[in-house]
Amino acid sequence: MPELSFRRCPTCGIFFRDLAECPTDATPLVEEEAVIDRYRILDRLGEGSMGVVYRAQHTLLDDRVVAIKLLYRHLAHDPATVGRFFREAKATSQLRNPHIVEVVDFGTSPGGDTFLVMEYLEGLSLRDVLTKEPVLPLPRAVSIVEQIADGLHAAHEHGTVHRDLKPDNVVLVERDGAERVKLLDFGIAQLSEYKDARLTQTGIVLGTPGYMSPEQASGDPVDHRTDIYALGTILYEMLTGQCPFQGNTAREVLVRKLTRPVPIPRQLRPEISLSVEAVILHALERKPELRPASVLQLVDELHDAVRRTGQGRTSRSQPVVAPPPPAPVEEPPIDEEEPLPAPPPKRLEPRRGTLGRLLPIAGVGLGLALGVVATLLLTRSSGQTGGGAAPKLEAKTSPPDARAPAGDTRLAAALPPDAGRRRKGTGPRHPLVVKRQPGKHEPKPLEVKKTVEAKTPEVIDSKTTAEVSSKPSGAQVFDEHDAPLGRTPLRVPTGKARKLTVHLVGYEHHTLKIPARATKSFTVTLGKSTASWEAVSLRQLKQMLDRGQISQFTYNRRRKELLEKRDQKLAEARAKLRIGEYTKEQYDRLVKTIEDAYK
Q1: Mind listing the pLDDT tens digit for each residue in 454-468?
Q2: What is the DSSP letter of 325?
Q3: CATH (one of 3.40.250.10, 1.10.510.10, 1.10.287.1770, 2.70.50.60) for 123-314
């Protein structure tokens, strides 16, 4: 017998190295050969909710290193748990996909150990990567999501829902100089053939709260769309650095997920484009029927959003140093009486020294001078016979000027309208002459008051609203600052003119301009996105690949779908030819039409 390097706890069945007692229950460890069935344990890799994973080596194939998952002994006594453990093995072994870990063996050893043998992966989990680099670049995040979606799609086609998708179960390995994704732990996956009450009830308490879908957290039946929600959560975390819902306890996280809207990603990372944000929010819809129909549709939407990035309003290529200001519509209505006293202190704040002490005196003098000017205007407007008094008043209020003698009645008419602005340094009384323009008989104090009111910060009147709707409905509406207002139909304040953006995944953006104080309804008809897969031929699909508009992954899948549709139509035509519904000439013309449409 070879020299033993492991000791084992007789209670939980875990192997330890260089310890005398179990760190969990302080049970003394016993020496035992670290061999499970035909696999010799080499090292410990990690621990999960159902067991411990070890790096092991086949005793007959010495050069083959595998990962063996050993079920806890106290769980091995529960027939339901053992049954679910083997269903994990069966579900995973049936999934032949390069992005799903390969299961090579499973069973029960002669000593009573329940085990699962998988391929050994040398790499880091996505959780380890996000710990070192909380925010990933958009291209890398898209690549990871694309590969996860490919693995999930293979599982969904076999009727398997992962239900515990999270960064810990995503391993990144290097293959052929590229980063490859491997999905782990289908331990709480639910096969369609095993949907009984006990499994559904077990599924409620399993899963990670931060990535669980709302229906899973509520205990409702789940399907493949719960994995779409988890994938959207992972994308949210990779681009913002945190999960959308956080809390001190699992209960707090689940309550927030069920009662609060998803925090806007661009409030955390302003450089995220509007299109990418719309894809994230689409995947994180609370109701499953509002999410993408499949993980592949989510990938298509994400690729389309990345293609749109940098065009028009969706571009966020310029770095933003400060966080974006909160949208005025998002905040509670502002009391209009509060901001009015604020402007005067802001104007007096930069004035210091002697000028600041002279301002009160200058203000009194300015008021008296304005009164004198108003009296002069009223006197002159009463008729030409009263013009004799005007020169005396003008001589007392007008400053000396080198271009005209003091007391000259033509002084105001001789000076150009912008003379006060060109002669700022000659004294505080020049604006009186500048503002006394011929034909202006409105008292000057009223003009000053109007000017002050015009500079008061504009406050949106929340009482005046207009309804915005779209065809189709459910589109997102963004304000002038690209802050989301909600989904159509909704009412928006129109105290001032608005410029809104209406966006729905799969449709073109639409800009809506609403005049101030508008109260009528505005309906936007959204046009389908130009990249409609229903109208794309094989030739156009290849052109999109060559131009870099779609990835090789999307090209291969879309090409396969187009060929399947073409073959289906050709098969229908042949069937109608056989039953005599088509003549040979009609059949040949139809075949040519179908082949030309899909070229």
Answers
A1: 444 444 555 788 999
A2: P
A3: 1.10.510.10
